[in-house]
Amino acid sequence: MMRNRSLCLSLALLLVLQVLLTGCWDNVELNRRAIISGIAIDRGDTEAEKYKLSFQVIVAEEISGEKSRGISPVALYTGVGRTMFEALADASRQTARFLSLGHVRVLVISEKFAREGIKDILDVLERESDTRLNSEIFISKGQPARVLMSTMTVFSKIPANDLVEKLETTSKQFGYNFRMAVDDVIRGIQIRGGGPIINGVYTSGDREQAGSNDSLKNIEPRTILRVSGLAAFKDDKLKGWLTGDAAVGTVLLHNNLREYPSLLKDKEGGYISFNIYQSQVTLKVQSADPEHPVITVKITQQAALKESPNTLDLTSPRVLDELSDQLTEETVKQIKAAVSAARGFKSDYLGFGKAFQRKNPRGWKKIKDHWEEVFTTCGIRFEADVVIRHTDMRGNSFQIN
Question: Where is 204: in which H helix or E strand?
Answer without folding.
Answer: strand 197-205
